[in-house]
Design a protein that fits this description.
The structure is a single chain. By secondary structure, this protein is of the alpha/beta class. It has 2 domains: 3-162, Rossmann fold; 169-360, Rossmann fold (3-Layer(aba) Sandwich). It is 41% helix and 16% strand. It contains 18 helices and 15 strands. It is globular.
Length: 374
């Protein structure tokens, strides 16, 4: 059985490498480096653009060797599609182009691209949609992606599959050992570690009214943990697309990092070898300092069992809560993301994180690949 994963965006590299490592059958990663417009004439067009610098492509090749393929045109990708049994992608690829693989799997996972995937289903007789667990695919949660009626969703529910693979990272790192990871990353073994996600959310999802408010909050948070003796790691978006887009949009993680740089002990913005750097950094940390709403809280941090501190005000949270994905809302409701760093909140986190993960992820590596290949 031949299987490929189409990697269109750098943000999905960690997922692609994880699938490559755990696949029970021949598996290749295909990076697309061409521009394409959608073939379906959507009212609101979708497209694909090159997002990978040569250095990032080479880094992946250094990890997986000849199992990396670079498709530089639609013709090249078509020829690859024709010769594989299973094509896996996050979803955009299926709503822009038309896969010719024998079986296609869209890893919507948390509901990503569900609206477009719903619309493109009539064009496919071999496309299935994969979610991390059944909780993500409830009628209530899926209706958030386009206002679909219960009957609309029930008509296609037979095309849904469920399973999580992210949990493999935690099992791998737990066996590898926190001290060994710290040594490899150059983190002191005798010091508590705080992992700063230095990222401001989009306006509709941000708990702040402006960049100055965001920066003042981040500075206070860093000072608090520095004064308590924490080693501070920072991570921000520095990819090719990020630098271009967020600089123009004046996002502070690009334009104002210099204001906190002297307080950061280590930047961790790259990828590195398997497991991906962000996963190792969070596993090695005692707390995630969440500067603003971000998906890092309910995926990487939650899977790494890393407690999450976010200095939100109730007013700031209330104005954005309706914009967040269901798992984020659940974390706030259970105080798994807390705005007071205390022993009581840390204890609550460790008592409730496992039920949260079982509900939203329910990791089972064997079941995941069984569902993929059935």
């Amino acid at each position: 059985m031949k299987c490929i994963y189409i990697l269109e965006s750098p943000k999905d590299i960690a997922l692609a490498l994880l699938m490559h490592r755990t696949s029970p059958f021949p598996f290749k990663i295909v990076i697309t480096t061409f521009t394409a417009t959608d073939k379906y004439k959507w009212a609101k067009p979708k497209g694909m653009t090159p997002c990978f610098p040569k250095e990032e492509i080479q880094n992946i090749r250094d990890i997986i060797g000849d199992d990396l393929i670079v498709a530089s045109s639609e013709v090249e990708l078509d020829n690859i599609w024709k010769n594989v049994d299973i094509c896996i992608a996050r979803g955009r690829e299926f709503v822009v182009l038309k896969s010719k693989a024998k079986k296609n799997i869209a890893l919507s996972l948390t509901g990503s691209y569900f609206g477009r995937l719903y619309s493109v289903l009539p064009y496919y007789d071999n496309l299935r949609i994969f979610f991390l667990s059944k909780e993500w695919a409830t009628t209530e949660n899926l209706s958030l992606h386009g206002g679909y009626s219960p009957s609309d969703i029930e008509k296609i529910r037979g095309l849904f599959d469920y399973g999580d693979i992210y949990g493999y990272y935690y099992d791998y790192m737990k066996e590898y050992g926190k001290d060994k990871i710290k040594e490899e990353l150059g983190i002191p073994l005798d010091q508590k570690v705080a992992f700063l996600s230095f990222r401001k959310a989009a306006e509709a999802e941000s708990i702040y009214n402006n960049n100055d408010e965001f920066m003042n909050s981040v500075k206070r948070m860093i000072k608090k943990f520095k004064d308590e003796g924490y080693f501070i790691i920072s991570r921000r978006r520095l990819g090719q697309h990020d630098l271009k887009y967020y600089s123009v949009m004046n996002y502070p993680e690009i334009t104002r990092f210099n204001e906190i740089a002297s307080s950061i002990n280590k930047e961790m913005n790259g990828s590195g070898e398997f497991p991906y750097e962000i996963w190792k950094g969070l596993f090695a940390s005692d707390v995630l300092l969440l500067a603003d709403n971000s998906g890092i809280c309910y995926i990487e941090a939650a899977m790494s069992r890393c407690p999450i501190y976010m200095p939100y005000t109730q007013k700031g949270l209330d104005k954005t809560l309706h914009q967040l994905l269901p798992a984020s809302k659940d974390m706030f409701s259970q105080n798994l993301i807390f705005n007071e760093y205390s022993e009581e909140n840390i204890k609550n986190y460790h008592q409730n994180i496992e039920p949260f993960l079982k509900k939203w992820y329910n990791y089972d590596i064997d079941k995941f690949w069984k569902e993929i290949s059935k």
